[in-house]
Every structure is written in C-alpha cells, then in structure tokens.
C-alpha cells in the first residue's frame, strides 16, 4: 500500500494528459479548403439546423490530428502500472480505452459506418494494421489485427432493466456538437464564420468562443453540412496558437445506408477470443473511461490512493469556460527527483514551479487542460491558464 500511495503522487500530471485527451473523443472532422456560396444564415438558425438533423446512416473516412503540446507518452501508462504494482498486463490489447490513447498525439486515419443506434463500426488504420470496434445489436466486438486478438461483449447495448449505457459506439460529430451547444450560455459567443467545403460537401462554419478571459480555449469551430445539418468538422484551437489541439475531419462521407454485412463480424481463424465481463463492453469513447477503469476515476486520481476515494471530494470554482475543479489529495506534491525514472522527463517537460499566498506548487500544463498541485497536496484543474489556477489557489486561502 505504501508503494501504491507513493506512485499515486505522480498520477496527477499523467491525469492532466488523460483528461485533455478526453476532450477529443472519437470525432470525425478535417476539412478540405473551399468557400461555397450559400444562403445567409444566422447562428440561431444554424443551431436549429443541427438540432433538427436526423442523420441515422453514414459511412466515410476521416482523419484526426491532435496536438496537446505534450511530450511523447508512448508506453507511459504501462510504466505507471509497473511503478504502482498495477496489472495492466491482464488487460486485453483490444480494450477500447487502450486504443483511444493512440489518439492523444499525431495524425490518424479512421473509417466509420453507422446504421441507426444499434449498428456502428469504427476502424483505426495504422499502416497495414487495423483496430476495429463493431457494435451490432447486443454484441460489441473489438479486434486488433496486429495481436490477432478479439474482445467480445454480449448484451453491451443495454444495462440493468434495459437501460442504455452512458457511452455508445462510435461517437459522432453531432454528439460532440450537442454537448458544446448545451454548455453555451452568457459566457459564450456563437457566430457563423463563413462557409467551407468538407469532403466535397458545402458546409457552414459555426464559431464558438469564450467571452471570459482566462480560458485556454481560443475557439471551437464546427462545420455543418448545408443540406442535412450534420456536423462534419470539429476544430479546437488553443490560446497558445500554433497547430489546433484538434483538427479532424471527413475526407469522404456518404449518407446512404451501409450494407448489413458491414456490421457482421466473425473472429479470424487462429485469433484469441476473450469473452468480456461487462467491464469493457460499453465501448468507452474517451480516455476518461480508461482512467476510470485503471485508477478509480478522476475522484480516485485526485483523491489520494487511486480507487480508494480517500480524498476530500471535489469543489467547483467559477463557471463556464473558466470552471476549475479543486481536490485535496491528502498527499504531498510529487518531487521530480523522487519520481520513478519513467516519469522524470515527463514531469520536467510539463511542470512549472509557481508560488503565491497559497504557498508553492507546480503547474502541469497542456495546451488545453492544466493542473496546479500545491506542495501540501491540493489540486486545481481546468481548461484555464496557469495564472487562473494560481488565482484560484490564492482565493482559497
């Protein structure tokens, strides 16, 4: 237990990377250039067009490019598991949460198909290798061609008493757009920023920006199909400038109904098949689900020893784009020179020492999600600037 507690002190900066990745999800996007001449439309009308969209079927290819401003995190999860005595080796390589960590950085090509809420397929292409997630009725299949392994979950589309799971496979641009629009209020500016051509289709550009200062988000842009109202593109830009945090988009899209055979799956000959227990069957869409599985969720990450929930709970500071969550880990802040060697370079690259009325601590930074951990073990985390975290910690004294 002592070794686990010591290792947990180094989870915070790793969690920052994970939570940042959780903002990405599996979102089709990336646009071709173009400026089609379309009828004028107001932001309210465009939002209503999105809300009225009832796209049930589609197939296509899209690319996802992410730049969180992070150093290489390849193998970091396995390194942490080793340092904390975890049993990552017992997790099938086909676990969707593990696959999704690949989207934290770089550019990836995916294929997607959907036929209503009961049939979806997503394939991540990596050279000649493929990772596929297939949801067909009550069955969810995950297949890793490199390892030739299959994970099968039965009854994954419904929970107790027929309830649907919180996350369904795969995520769509509309789902992410709906979440962004629901969060919009007095703290948000929403305008129409011209037009674009996405995968050969005419689209309007919906531009969403924080009105508040202190957010790390510069803007969110959603390209909306002019004909169907289906969101086709999602771009997330940071106030740091440079490459977008997320620039992903359809390079090809077809709204015709995919063939039923698209969602059929049989394990290849010789493949290792693991029958799931429900732990992986809800096909998580984001890395936060992976954190939930590995570390007991964000409350476990910031609540002392992962999974024990022995912290002091979560306080929410502020509102809108500058919301900050604060935690008390009940443990001293990590010291880089005491960290496991696998984490020393990672901590150095993310960490920035700060001080104020609260005392002193370290801000762990990405281009979107930042976290301040004080020397006495308190954590302040949000999509806000370093100064906003310091101000929140000072105000709490």
Provide a compact summary of the structure.
This protein has 397 residues and is α+β, with helices and mostly antiparallel strands. The chain is 23% helix and 33% strand.
List keywords for this structure.
397 residues, alpha+beta, outer membrane lipoprotein receptor (LolB), chain A, 2 domains, six-stranded antiparallel β-sheet, 10 helices, globular
Explain this structure.
With 397 residues, the chain is of the alpha+beta class. The protein folds into 2 domains: 1-23 and 71-93 and 286-397, no CATH class; 27-68 and 105-283, Lipoprotein localisation LolA/LolB/LppX (outer membrane lipoprotein receptor (LolB), chain A, Clam). The chain contains 10 helices and 18 strands. Strand 8 (201-210) and strand 9 (217-225) form a beta hairpin. The longest helix is centred in the first third of the chain and has 12 residues, at 11-22. The radius of gyration is 21 Å and the shape is globular.
């Amino acid at each position: 237990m002592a070794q686990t507690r010591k290792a947990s002190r180094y989870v915070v900066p790793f969690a920052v990377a994970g939570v940042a990745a959780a903002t990405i999800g599996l979102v089709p996007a990336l646009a071709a250039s173009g400026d089609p001449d379309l009828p004028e439309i107001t932001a309210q009308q465009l939002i209503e067009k999105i809300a009225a969209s009832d796209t049930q079927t589609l197939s296509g290819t899209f690319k996802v490019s992410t730049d969180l401003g992070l150093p290489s995190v390849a193998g970091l999860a396995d390194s942490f598991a080793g340092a904390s005595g975890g049993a990552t080796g017992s997790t099938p390589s086909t676990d969707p949460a593990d696959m999704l960590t690949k989207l934290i950085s770089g550019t990836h090509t995916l294929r997607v198909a959907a036929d209503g809420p009961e049939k979806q397929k997503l394939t991540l292409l990596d050279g000649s290798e493929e990772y596929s997630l297939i949801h067909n009725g009550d069955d969810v299949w995950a297949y890793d061609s490199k390892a030739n392994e299959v994970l099968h979950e039965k009854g994954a589309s419904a929970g107790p008493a027929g309830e649907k799971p919180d996350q369904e496979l795969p995520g769509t641009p509309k789902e992410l757009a709906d979440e962004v629009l629901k969060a919009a209020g007095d703290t948000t500016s929403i305008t129409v920023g011209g037009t674009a051509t996405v995968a050969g289709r005419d689209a309007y550009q919906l531009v969403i920006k924080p009105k508040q200062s202190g957010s790390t988000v510069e803007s969110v842009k959603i390209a909306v199909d002019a004909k169907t109202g289906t969101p086709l593109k999602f771009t997330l830009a940071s106030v740091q400038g440079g490459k977008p945090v997320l620039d992903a988009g359809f390079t090809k899209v077809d709204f015709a109904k995919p063939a039923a055979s698209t969602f059929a799956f049989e394990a290849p000959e010789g493949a290792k098949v693991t029958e799931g227990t429900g732990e992986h069957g809800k096909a998580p869409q984001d890395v936060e689900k992976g954190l939930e599985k590995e570390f007991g969720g964000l409350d476990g990450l910031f609540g002392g020893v992962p999974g024990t929930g022995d912290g002091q709970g979560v306080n929410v500071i502020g509102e809108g784009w500058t919301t900050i969550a604060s935690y008390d880990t009940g443990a001293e802040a990590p010291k880089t020179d005491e960290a496991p060697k696998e984490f020393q370079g990672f901590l150095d690259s993310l960490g920035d020492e700060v001080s104020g009325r609260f005392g002193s601590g370290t801000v762990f930074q990405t281009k979107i999600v930042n976290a301040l951990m004080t020397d006495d073990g308190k954590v302040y985390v949000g999509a806000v600037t370093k100064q906003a975290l310091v101000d929140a910690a000072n105000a709490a004294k």
